[in-house]
Design goal:
The protein has helices at residues 93-101, 125-128, 147-160, and strands at 2-3, 8-9, 13-15, 20-29, 33-47, 54-68, 83-84. With 161 residues, the protein is an alpha+beta fold.
């Protein structure tokens, strides 16, 4: 187990800083360098994209990356996305970060059928019940909304006079 680095996540969900990351790693010597394969498991915290309730779950993802020897050249030039050994050291943070961040949901949900929030009043629709609604007048007809009341007042005045 290793502590999670800062900002290991996306806007709505991520791994808390210093949370325990469980790594299961396999190192294989190959002609070009060292092939690193493994899985990462970590706790996730965030908020539901629909109702904004806090959520927590567990992430598990696989990764595989080739770290080439410093004196190895692929096609004559070192590739930009090629990972290199630093002496006898392998920096796994970018590999683990890619394995986690690229596989996180951009819009995490507290549950698959989360109804979200009411767009008019902001109440959680799961708590509001099926009879929750608002009488919304189409803005194109809003000017006519008071017309009915004005007409009935005019009738009452004409009947009194």
């Amino acid at each position: 187990m290793v502590p999670a680095p800062a900002e290991l996540g996306v806007e709505m969900v991520g791994v808390p800083k210093d949370a325990d990351l469980e790594l299961d790693i396999r190192l294989e010597a190959v002609m070009e360098g060292v092939l690193v394969s493994g899985t990462v498991s970590a706790p996730l915290t965030g908020e539901c994209a629909r109702c904004l309730d806090p959520i927590s779950s567990r992430f598990e993802g696989d990764f595989q990356e080739l770290f080439v020897y410093p004196d190895t050249r692929s096609g004559g030039e070192a590739g930009e996305d090629e990972r290199r050994l630093d002496g006898d050291l392998i920096d796994l943070e970018p590999v683990v970060r890619d394995a986690v961040v690229l596989n996180l949901p951009l819009s995490p949900l507290c549950r698959d059928d989360c109804p979200g929030l009411c767009s008019e009043c902001g109440v959680r629709l799961a708590d509001a019940g099926p009879d929750h609604r608002h009488d919304v007048v189409d803005p194109r007809w809003a000017a006519l909304q008071g017309l009915d009341q004005t007409e009935s007042e005019t009738r009452e005045e004409s009947q009194e006079g």
